[in-house]
């Protein structure tokens, strides 16, 4: 029985917000689409950038080398000789940029703070105001625990979780998914840069770019049955996400090949790499292969044999989603190294 | 009926002397950071029904879903979390909706008619019905909905102060807050207040016996009589719900069944016939069955309101299969809301909406012909 008479503010908001999102993103959306592979034509570029000396200064990631690694990856992705040229293809001055990190794995296995600092530096060099950048995940306390310094207000990069602002009242829908989306995404963001972590996932097989979007909806717990398929693909189809997602930078400085998504030191390794692409499907396919190689090296069975192949990747590429390609023949994979 | 509020997030912890005033708990609509989230430790208790696994994982044994949950993750219902290999409920005493309702609103028609139920809910549900009317709390995590700390003794005291002989666990799914439900039922019984659960019946046997063993009555939403509907529309399974009904019967727990009739999805004659036949065979013909009217909501907005004629057809089929107490719900003023004596056909309890206009049952029987009428009629 209904618990009370609810005013249906939601339905009203749904329409308004859909319109507002479209207006706010305007040509941003066009740019985002242009970054994606067009059917049967351009290949999806995926760059895997390594730096064996990323932790030269000790156990932690060296901030200067993190910046150099990001630059190297972006220059390869954008075919530009200078970082500034790369970022001009991603953002424009005046735009508001949200950086979705992943902090579920605590200090051991979360998006690297130095990497995000490097990203913020480059965004500001491209003309984005510090206060127009927000680093976010689901939960502020988790972010803080991981090492992110929480910042709200003032002329500085913002950093806090959706728990501080909440989710839209309106439901966004695609396929199997009906979710409320983070207000950080809907109200403070024109461009979304996704910075997940490369991880094994006990239910989904792996988690990298696509699944990191579970962190912007209010009900990820409802999206885990059946190996998260088709939920991961459906979540990424939500207008609020799809229209803003511009770039995916998967943090593989530390990754895990088993026991994920939580941090279990015995299954983690320092890959000291970034995977970068505008195509989250191609990136996830590449991430999957990296995890399979590591599993084979460690004598573990394939994810398929383990009963948890990441089927959602193929779903994300199918005709109902077209979020990118999972066909290696339609990917342009380059591996680069920082000297 | 005493509606404490109009909007569900207005918590009715308001009775005289107890809390003092109605408090609005609606969240701020501003998209700007609020203060840090408060510590949730007072809502957290170790869960009762789970098993520890290797690598700090757990297997939840509360409902048939049996979520295997890794460290720092939550089960499907969103209100139980693994922290370092120990599983916790996050919703003990975390009340996000509280109202004083007529018991008829649950609906329970053969249980203390004309009385009030102090009705409470927490966030969370172990299924995802596409037609849920309370999805804003049932499909949310506890930290996403405004809530108040209302421990069991406070609820029992509020119920007593508001002349409610019963506490109802309702609106979302009480199975997922079973630890809180059990503690509150105990507190209520100590204060002379009964408890009823309004549930989907999707629980494992041990949990059902433990939690609903403390109830004085249970209403089960039997959402359809086909596994396909349960899979596609509910996100659950039919068989465990039927098993729960049989178990409740064996426990001699007063039980009523609601069947929400959704146009084109669960409204076929054969489905009504199979449903009624199963109830008669497994539970007996005296179990009240309520066919209620669907209204478009949540993810199922493309279907019309159930025609009254469909509900009448369902009722006729169920009665034809041998069920004696078949009701039509969500249709105020319909004669299918009344309780009739199955022998002399006289109206024994006359209802309009949730209001009982006439209650003639005396000593559990028909005053006209003496027929015994099953139920809990007097406190
Ligand atoms: S009660 Fe919740 S956590 Fe437990 S099995 Fe059911 S859905 Fe999963």
How would you characterize this protein structure?
The complex is a heterodimer of chains A (339) and B (379). In chain A, the strands form 2 sheets. In chain A, strands 1, 2, 3, 4, 7, 8, 9, 10, 11, 12 and 13 form an 11-stranded mixed beta sheet that branches. A two-stranded antiparallel ribbon of chain A has the order 5-6. Chain A is built from 10 helices and 13 strands. Helix content of chain A is 33%, strand content 18%. Chain A has helices spanning 9-35, 63-78, 83-90, 113-125, 140-146, 183-187, 231-237, 239-242, 280-297, 312-317, and strands spanning 44-50, 97-100, 133-136, 158-159, 172-174, 177-179, 191-194, 197-201, 205-207, 245-256, 268-269, 273-277, 331-337. In chain A, helix 2 packs across helix 3 (83-90) and helix 2 packs across helix 4. The longest helix of chain A is centred in the N-terminal third of the chain and has 27 residues, at 9-35. Chain A has one domain (9-35, 44-337). With 339 residues, chain A is an alpha/beta fold. Chain B is of the alpha/beta class and 379 residues long. Chain B has helices spanning 135-138, 152-161, 178-190, 205-212, 227-234, 239-250, 269-282, 308-320; strands at residues 10-11, 23-24, 45-46, 50-52, 58-60, 68-69, 80-83, 86-89, 94-95, 97-102, 116-121, 148-149, 166-169, 194-199, 217-221, 254-261, 289-293, 326-329, 339-340, 347-352, 355-359. In chain B, strands 10-11-13-14-15-16-17-18 form an 8-stranded mixed beta sheet. A 3-stranded antiparallel beta sheet of chain B has the order 3-8-7, with no helix packed on it. In chain B, a hairpin with a 6-residue loop joins strand 19 and strand 20. In chain B, helix 3 runs parallel beside helix 4, helix 4 packs across helix 6 (239-250) and helix 7 (269-282) packs across helix 8 (308-320). The radius of gyration of chain B is 20 Å and the shape is globular. Chain B starts with 9 loop residues before the first strand and ends in a 20-residue tail after the last strand. Mean pLDDT of chain B is 91; it is low at 1-31. Classes of the chains: A alpha/beta (339), B alpha/beta (379). The complex binds iron/sulfur cluster (SF4). Iron/sulfur cluster binds next to loops of chain B.
């Amino acid at each position: 029985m209904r618990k009370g008479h609810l005013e249906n503010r939601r339905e009203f908001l749904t329409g308004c917000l859909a319109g507002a999102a479209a207006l706010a993103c305007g040509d941003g959306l066009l740019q985002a689409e242009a970054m994606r592979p067009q059917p049967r034509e351009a290949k999806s570029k995926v760059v895997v950038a390594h730096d064996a000396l990323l932790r030269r200064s000790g156990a932690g990631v060296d901030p200067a080398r993190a910046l150099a690694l990001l630059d190297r990856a972006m220059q390869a992705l954008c075919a530009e000789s200078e970082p500034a040229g790369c970022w001009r293809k991603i953002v424009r001055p005046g735009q508001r940029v949200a950086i979705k990190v992943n902090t579920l794995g605590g200090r051991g296995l979360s998006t690297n703070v130095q990497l995000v600092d490097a990203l913020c530096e480059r965004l500001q060099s491209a003309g984005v105001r510090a206060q127009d950048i927000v680093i976010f995940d689901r939960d502020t306390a988790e972010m803080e625990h991981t090492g992110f310094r929480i910042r709200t207000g003032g002329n500085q990069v913002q950093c806090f979780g959706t728990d501080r602002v909440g989710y839209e009242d309106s439901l966004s829908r695609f396929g199997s998914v009906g979710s409320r989306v983070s207000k950080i995404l809907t109200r403070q963001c024109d461009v979304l840069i996704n910075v997940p972590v490369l991880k094994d996932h006990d239910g989904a097989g792996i988690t990298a770019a696509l699944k990191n979007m579970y962190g912007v909806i209010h009900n990820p717990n409802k999206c885990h049955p059946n190996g998260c398929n088709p939920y991961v693909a459906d979540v990424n189809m939500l207008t609020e996400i799809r229209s803003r997602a511009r770039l995916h930078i998967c943090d593989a400085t530390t990754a895990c090949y088993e026991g994920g998504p939580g941090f279990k030191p015995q299954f983690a390794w320092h890959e000291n790499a970034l995977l970068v692409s505008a195509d989250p499907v191609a990136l996830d396919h590449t991430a999957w292969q990296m995890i399979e190689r590591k599993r084979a090296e460690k004598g573990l069975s394939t994810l398929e044999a383990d009963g948890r192949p990441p089927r959602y990747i193929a779903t994300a590429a199918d005709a109902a989603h077209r979020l990118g390609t999972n066909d290696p023949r339609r990917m342009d994979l380059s591996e680069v190294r920082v000297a | 009926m005493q509606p404490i509020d109009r909007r569900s997030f207005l918590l009715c912890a308001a009775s005289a002397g107890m809390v003092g005033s109605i408090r609005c708990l609606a969240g701020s609509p501003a998209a700007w950071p609020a203060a840090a989230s408060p510590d949730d430790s007072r809502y957290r208790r170790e869960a009762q029904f789970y098993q520890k696994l290797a690598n700090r994982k757990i297997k939840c044994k509360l409902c048939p879903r049996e979520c295997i949950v890794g460290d720092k993750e939550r089960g499907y219902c969103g209100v139980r979390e693994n922290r370092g290999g120990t599983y916790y409920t996050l919703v003990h005493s975390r009340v996000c909706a509280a109202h004083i309702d007529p018991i008829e609103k649950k609906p329970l028609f053969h249980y203390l008619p004309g009385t009030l139920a102090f009705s409470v809910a927490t966030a969370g549900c172990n299924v995802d019905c596409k037609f849920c009317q309370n999805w804003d709390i049932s499909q949310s995590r506890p930290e996403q909905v405004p809530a108040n700390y209302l421990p069991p003794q406070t609820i029992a005291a509020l119920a007593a102060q508001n002349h409610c002989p019963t506490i109802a666990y309702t609106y979302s799914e009480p199975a997922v807050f079973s630890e809180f439900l059990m503690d509150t039922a105990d507190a209520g019984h100590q204060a002379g207040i009964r408890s009823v659960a309004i549930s989907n019946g999707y629980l494992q046997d041990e949990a059902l016996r433990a939690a609903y063993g403390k109830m004085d009555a249970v209403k089960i939403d039997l959402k359809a009589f086909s596994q396909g509907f349960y899979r596609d529309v509910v996100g659950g399974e039919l068989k465990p719900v039927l098993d729960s009904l049989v178990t409740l019967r064996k426990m001699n727990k007063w039980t009523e069944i609601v069947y929400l009739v959704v146009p084109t999805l669960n409204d076929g004659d054969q489905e009504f016939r199979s449903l009624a036949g199963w109830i008669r065979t497994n539970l007996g013909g005296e179990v009240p069955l309520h066919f209620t009217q669907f209204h478009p909501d949540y993810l199922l907005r493309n279907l019309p309101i159930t025609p009254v004629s469909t509900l009448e057809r369902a009722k006729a089929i169920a009665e034809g299969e041998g069920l004696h107490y078949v009701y039509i719900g969500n249709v105020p003023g319909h004669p299918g809301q009344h309780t009739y004596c199955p022998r002399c056909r006289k109206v024994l309890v006359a209802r309009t909406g949730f209001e009982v206009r006439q209650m003639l049952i005396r000593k559990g029987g028909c005053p006209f012909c003496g027929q015994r009428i099953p139920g809990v009629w007097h406190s």
